Amino acid sequence: MSRSEPLPLYGKEYKTDPYPLYRKLREEGPVHAVNFPSGVNAWLVTGYEAAQDALTDDRLGKNHDLGNSAWRERAAIMPEPQHSQLQVHLLHQDPPKHTVMRKLVTEAFTPRNVERKRARFEELATELLDAALAAPDAGGEAAGGVVDVVSAFAAHFPFRVLAEVIGLPDAIAARFDRDWGKVVQPVGPSDPQRPVYEGRLRGLQNYIAEVVEHKRAHPADDLLTKLVRACEAGEITKEEQDSIVFQLLVAGQEPVTNQITTALIALLRHPAELRRLQEAVSGEMSDADQALLARAVEELLRYDSAFELTTWRFFAEDSDLFGTTIPAGDSIIVSLCAANRDPERFPDADTLDLDRSPNPHMAFGHGIHFCPGAALARVELQIAVRQLLLRLPQIRLAVPDEDLVWVGAVLARGVNELPVAYGPTDAAPSGGCPVRH
């Protein structure tokens, strides 16, 4: 594929099912010229081994200052002043600054600290599903009905969990507008939606300022207070402090929301695996049942990862990448979804196998930018899958599979609405769940 013919990496067909394209690209080679909706031309890395190598390549940096003028002209990044104030978080930093900033946040997300809070997370999931099933159009667990998994559960559970972990007070957490999360889907200066986008930015920035001021006035033993104190001590700048809070509030919960939807859709498309997991999570779970649930979550992460592509990386000078010369400052993206379906690494890679082990998927990335919240996400997904299958008996899609609308965000996979029917099969309409591999 020549540099003059970049492959468009967008469109309904691609976002609905990108895996046939990824299969084709893997077979052609590890590096491909692509084009994004913003008009940005970039280089896409596919294949498991190539992805691992690229994500640990010391020559590739994350700082936006490395991007060349061609990238800057079209890159879908925030306008000033917000770009300078909110985009200097962990994902856009290189060592040694990245090392300092990452150390500030990792303790809150260690497996030990996350496990200590598992019971509380279970309570949050139960509260949300109690409310959802008590709604007039739901009908209750026994009678059955229809519920949108996203609006009733997936859009709220990850944020409520995150608030507990980082120390966001309930009153302030209740005022968070999920619409602000769309600031990671920028639109160009001439786009009619630009004023709406800039309004979201201002709203989120004001909210972050409120969070910081509250923690400064009411310090506690939590991550948000730790960030404020690090800023006051000069360990990080105000912009870095605000950017980390921004990253926590947006990147810390939206991918989990999307992953709940991709996981549930995968199970609905594979009825045998769905029934097996439902049997395992019902009632008192044995050690074997717990192990199956944990394996299932890992396989669901591999099979259809919500974080489809990594963020930008750049070479500081013209460099060779797997036999392709990449100009300095051109953007390089790694496809995590393509890597996770590589048959060279995963036998029967397009098959959902709940017993797959080992399962070294890259749903959380790889290298120094491996997601610091991976342990938290795993626990959230285990709880979410179990509770949804437990509380929504005979779960099935309430609309035809082909009517599901996948989010158009460049980096993400998921759906904004996931209506499911549950209970007796005559209690609500079902669109059917065709098995697809």
What does this structure look like?
47% of the residues lie in helices and 8% in strands. The protein is an alpha+beta fold. The model is unreliable at 428-437 (pLDDT under 50).
Short key terms for the protein model shown above:
437 residues, Cytochrome p450, 3-stranded antiparallel beta sheet, globular, iron ion binding, Cyt_P450_B, Cyt_P450
Work out the radius of gyration: 22 Å
CATH architecture annotation name = Orthogonal Bundle
- Summing up helix and strand content along with how strands pair, one would put the structural category as alpha+beta
Q: Main beta sheet: strand number and arrangement?
A: 4 strands, mixed
Nearest-integer average pLDDT: 90
What is the highest CATH level, the class?
Mainly Alpha
The beta-strand count equals 11
Helix content range of the residues, please?
40-55%
Give the CATH topology: Cytochrome p450
In one word, what is the shape? Answer: globular
Beta percentage is 5-15%
Give the end-to-end Cα distance, rounded to a whole number of Å: 27 Å
Low-confidence stretches: 428-437
**In which order are the strands of the major sheet placed?**
1-2-3-9
Number of domains: 1
At the fourth level of CATH, the homologous superfamily is Cytochrome P450
Count, helices: 20
